[in-house]
Protein 1
Amino acid sequence: MKYKDYYAALGVPRDASEDAIKKAYRKLARQYHPDVSKTPDAEAKFKEVGEAYATLKDPEKRAAYDQLGQRGAGEDFSPPPQWQHDYAQGVHAFDDIDIADLLDALGRGHRVHRRGPLPGEDYEATARISLEDAHRGAALHLNLQQDGAPKTLEVTIPAGVREGQKLRLRGKGGKGHNGGPDGDIYLHIALLPHPVFRPDGHDLYFDLALTPWEAALGAEVEVSTLDGAVLLTVPPGTQSGRKMRLRGRGLANGRGGHGDAYAVVRIDVPATLSARERELFEQLAKSSHFNPRTIAKEN
């Protein structure tokens, strides 16, 4: 009997998941289907990947196949006696039998024929959405090209998606043929720039401008979040660059919770001064012994 490497035929590792095996088969089956491919060996390749998938998609047949061990493709071999006892009782001679026929003796297989089912093509698309849509969810209309024709698809974006996340829209891709399943659309999430907030996962960062006296004396200031304005307590002696955490005020995480928001302090000074303001700053300069450059040297 000649050994056939079904994992190599599908281009997957021996520990590949069921989803990985299915995805590899769908891609190769469409690539080599005789109704689609123009390559000379398309029919042979199509039958090869179909035979491999028929074995590896079935947990019992895959387990039996794995028990045969790993050999070079085309290498002559015979299953060990224990394998015959466990999986193929009643099969007495292996010399003239094909490995696929041997596995079919388990009673669960089916052979793939030339005009067999052809899965639909998978597509990739990008949804560029606002932070507000990522936070609350939204219904979008995507304009796609499928099978060379324009198509508009209504998509529900769930609350809690994040930058770079990939959503699978099952059965929304190309149409299957000969009873094959429709393909999928893999939707990549891209967040549009926001005028205030900078996302990091489900956390949000924003700049908080404070006057020198607010930073020095402390204050209560109103800040914006995606869910409305809140009061933030600024403690006395707040330094520029400090991150002040607003727990649970970030983006929805899709699991019923939220990330956090962080106000990044930036201390601003007036660009122009009135006569009274200048007088007060001059008094402060004369009275204060604070020197940030000296403190920096000491640290």
Protein 2
Amino acid sequence: MDANDQPAEVRRGEALALKPLEAYLRERLPEMEGPLTVRQFPSGFSNLTYLLRAGDCEFILRRPPFGTKAKSAHDMEREYRILEALHPVFPYCPRPRLFAEEPAVMDGPFYVMAPIRGIILRKHLPPGLVLDPAQMRSLCENLLDVHGELHAVDYQAAGLAEFGRPEGYVGRQVEGWTARYEKARTPDAPTFAAVVGWLRERMPPDHPRPAIVHNDFKFDNVVLDPADPLRIIGVLDWEMATIGDPLMDLGCSMAYWVQADDPPDLQAIRMLPTHLPGALTRREMVQRYARRSGIVIDDFDFYLCFGLFRLAVIAQQIYYRSFHGQTADERFKSLIFAVHILEKSAQALTRESA
């Protein structure tokens, strides 16, 4: 069985300039031997990820997507600095190797890190991997516990105090994502007006225990040990990490968590195998997090509703690029359906919330 996440041919329009890149890297990564080859990891909708090989050496290169980008997104240098600070104290974090902003090499900033090779779960389990209900439950628990480990890191001691402002974090998130949605909204997109109004009315105060928040913590951003698929050995995609409210981070994760008894429209946009027999429900995940972290969670509806809205904004921002012809990636065209489904789900949650 080979369930490891595999790179593929580079997508049309996303090729790298191989000769200047190879020359630049050879001066800075002396272990490189043999000709450089490049392949691309096909999943993901935001920053682009490539596998570089030179002889027996492998590296991962991350760069922003081609085309128009959100003003504050895709900050390669910031993402690299987070890895630099976090890798020594959170061993699931990849080891960064170099950051570069060289127009002669690439049309935007990029960084290189050491690979963490293993299994990454997508919508379905990879061929050959079978998890019985007890194993699936254990894997969900392990995912949640690693998330809790991240929130328990002393971000000030790690040198990350300047990477976020926990004061007023919730309000900035609500207003910031609302502004992003309005900027990316297309004529075929819903308004989200009722959901945004509800979020503004229900905003909780600043959390007393701010933490490093990953902001995209989910199964397809963690790496599983090929020898023991229940063991998490890596956490990827730190582009949205900051200092903020850990419950907001958990809410964003739970927005991806489509469970077995969810309605058909949510099942249609499921991205992860969170529906399998034995998988914890969203309620069980939140309850376990509260027990393990010691954080009292009286009302999680706000955090989940925000997570659904934020996920819709991300989908809409990506769809915007397709709508305006800024990308040739065919996957983006269907994201408008996900935006409508997420609005429906968020509205239902606001009606059902006490």
Protein 3
Amino acid sequence: MPVIPEFAADGWFAPAFAYRAYGLNICSELECGGVSPSSGLPDVHVRLGRVPEQLEDPVATGVFYQATREQLLLNVKHIARYLISAGNEIVVEVTPQADLDMTRLLLMGSAFGALLHQRGVFTVHGSAIATRRGAVVFAGESGYGKSTLAGAFHQRGLLVLADDVCPIATSALPIVLPANPFLMLWADAANRLGLNQQHLRRVRSGLEKYVLPLGDGFAAEPAPLHAVYVLEPSNSDDLSIVPIHGLQKIKALNLATYRPHFFTGINAGRLRQIGEVARQAKVAVVMRPRNGFRVDELADLLAADFAA
């Protein structure tokens, strides 16, 4: 991992690490094992330092966050506080009792999800794979099977672009940007994929969630967006794929946005991005049984659909 000098606030040079994720070069004082290395000039600086417990005059608040027009504060009890500013800086204050693996995962997950919003990048709550037709995104709420499907296609030899935080650049045709070279799987998902949990690292001690390194199965290059499949559990035992059109595509993509509460108001740029994705990409709703996730059968159905 490249180590580069970084000028600290106290006048000393602190060691920093160079990473690349989400289409960005990252200079970080917090080591993040498993993230792709970088040799380019940094777009984002991650610093260790003091972070306020509250922001002045926030325009949006929640249990774990406060936001102004230029900043977002994430406060995860017993882990860390993250101050994300202007789309180019994240300051992290780690609590003494913090699990450092969880601190890093929150940095590369929620904190960078907020930073991507600040940079005006349309970001979907989903996982993405690279296919011959282009990038295919599986979107939906937590627990709906996004990472499990990405893992199933990884086992079939397809490259994974993103998991959970899925950035889509829309300056020209929509392009999915590579995120992090690992999947995070709950124990039941790992079991469905036939993975031995003893060979996987836990996200944190006591949590039945595991990190699956992708190795050569990670797509390091962006891919043009082909389709977005929005996963929806149902009480039926049937599997189905229902293409949607027009305004329904706009609504579905809007609901699939990563952490939409991180926004601080209606954003015309975001609406334009959603419209561009809706115009260029196929969008379909995937109905899957609420109980008994038949991952191989669903992967077969999806593979036939996005290859058609």
Protein 4
Amino acid sequence: MDRETMKDRAAKSALPAEWREARALYPLYANLAKEFVIDSPPCPDLENQTEAPSEESVLQARQWFLDLDERIQVHQLRQFLQTSSLANEQGLRDLLSHHLGKKHTHADRDKIDFLFVQYFAHCAPSGLQDENVDFGCVAQVLEPVLGAVNRASPEWLESIDQLLAEANATKDLNRLLAAHLLDKGRQLKESLGEEYFSPIAIVAFTRFGFLMRRIFFRLMYQDLHGIVEGLRELEKIGVTTLDCRRAQFSAEEPIARLRMICQSWKVLFHAEYSSGQPLRMLVDLRAVVDGALARTAKTAAPPRPAGPLKQAAAAGVGAGAGADASEFEVLPSPPDSGE
């Protein structure tokens, strides 16, 4: 009985700290719910910023946050925090404290993973080069949240370095997606179970997530630049539309609209770099534009005289080729060379 009483007292003594955290987090959650039209009634005492609430009010606020946590998806949290002025260092710390203090679900792990990467990106020294983002650097930046972290050498740590080495050696976004490196990293996290929430694992996967984000951004902007430059070249020779069904657009997609889509993607991919569908569309659109450029280069080349045997062969091969064939057909992707 005495033991239960001590537990109750300890729980009650923690309520003021919980309320301070709740008051700090409430504006962020309220704005997030508003942005994504998540129907949730306001929490009255938090809405009024009550300084000394009853125990019942604190418990109601706790449930209010838990209910919203179940409804907020990780991609919504990612998009909001990468575009909102509320996502400052203290706001990210408050969110991390909130999620680390909960009973962890699968969705919580994904949110915590993103929050630590975002916190590191926000707090890391400006101009930090990839080669300087080692375990010690990440541990130092995360110390205000995790405390001091002594590096050990668990077996799975080598697997993270191997994934990063493979990603760095990838030459384009198509090959990076085909390698399924993010999926492999996710599988590794899941295999750790509760060990994922240990400080050493959080530091290691924060480093992995941050460097993978940089690699994705570099390759995405490389493809975006290639598409925009390719569209400019096509416009110079009078092309106004492309058959973009391969990239889930229309059979006669105006080049002007494609350029606008590329501009909007720069914003979208900043928040959704790990989302598969938009990235697949980007890769496929790059293939369409490159195929159109190759086709125009081929047709623009002056014909070379063919010998009698080649003329006869060409007559057979060309039979049935209609004059109304698509000028810029969607060419199949080149086979993956494994580079």
